[in-house]
Amino acid sequence: MGTYIVKRILAIIPIFLLANLVTFGMIRLSPVDPAEAYLAAAHIQSTDEILAQKRQEFGLDQPLFVQYVNSVIQISQFNFGVSYVTNKPVWEEVYTRIPATIQLTVGSIILAILVSVPIGFLAGLKKNSGIDHFSRFLSFLGASIPSFWLGYLLIFFFSVKFDLFPVEGIGTWKHLVLPSVTLALPLIALYTRLLRASVLENLEEPYVLFARTRGIHERIIIGKHVFRIAISPMVTGLGMNLGNLMTGAIIVEVVFSWPGFGRYFIEAIFNRDVPVIQCYVMLAAGLFLISNLIVDLIQMYIDPRISRKGRQFQ
């Protein structure tokens, strides 16, 4: 296990460097000069002298290889430069907004798990029953409704019409309800469908038949064996969605004026704030890599067969 973790952590390094290289290349190939973007965001009249001064200040007059190496060194120190708009360090700006995004992400994941696990599990156990038809309808609904439309729909009914929840902002638990529901519904659709299919598949596995022939109680078979193995695809999906939720809840944050990292990224795009955009991309890559590593470790704990297969290939 320890060797596997070390190998996975070491494998993150070249992937992270590749992501940084792609980001660096896209920024340099962009027709927008970072120095010109800075002057435009700061509302400074661009002249050749000022432009040359800013290019030298940002290191844009150096060879590309030197610029790339410097960017790697700075990012490894969590130094993403200074925002063109606020003239504050980007990491400090991001650090103040990440807790709001984490709060929204955790709330939506908890809601998705609480709803999808019982519905998906019961739908798999009772195929073609009422709960099964409801799970299919819920999956279709969650997969087909755009998040921005669902957000405005929830605001119209539960904020404007019934005045149950706040329209925007952050503060009490009521502020968290509507954004979490909006972000959780697609996850509920995905996890319910995955869990239902996995339960149906595992009920046909030989180990279930052998357990029944040995006289083991059906509740023990379902609760201790089938559920533990069937939950594995859902855990995989959770790992793939975790990084996406942390960095991709942009639409929800904009609709509900949620002061998170995604909304900050949208503002950076409109302002051509290159350091913020680069910080967002690198954090997204890091979150995806770390979340996938955590999920793989959880999978090895849930299903020991994965651990045995991993040792065979080492």
TrEMBL record:
PROSITE patterns: ABC_TM1. Keywords: Cell membrane, Ion transport, Membrane, Nickel, Nickel transport, Transmembrane, Transmembrane helix, Transport. GO terms for molecular function: nickel cation transmembrane transporter activity. It is found in: Cell membrane. It is a multi-pass membrane protein. Its main location: membrane. One of its GO terms (cellular component) is plasma membrane. Residues 98-299 form the ABC transmembrane type-1 domain. InterPro entries: BPD_transp_1_N, MetI-like, MetI-like_sf, Nickel_NikB, Opp2B. Pfam families: BPD_transp_1, BPD_transp_1_N. NCBIfam families: nickel_nikB, Opp2B. Belongs to the binding-protein-dependent transport system permease family. OppBC subfamily. The complex is composed of two ATP-binding proteins (NikD and NikE), two transmembrane proteins (NikB and NikC) and a solute-binding protein (NikA). This is Nickel import system permease protein NikB. It comes from Anaerobacillus alkalidiazotrophicus. The lineage of its organism: Bacteria, Bacillati, Bacillota, Bacilli, Bacillales.
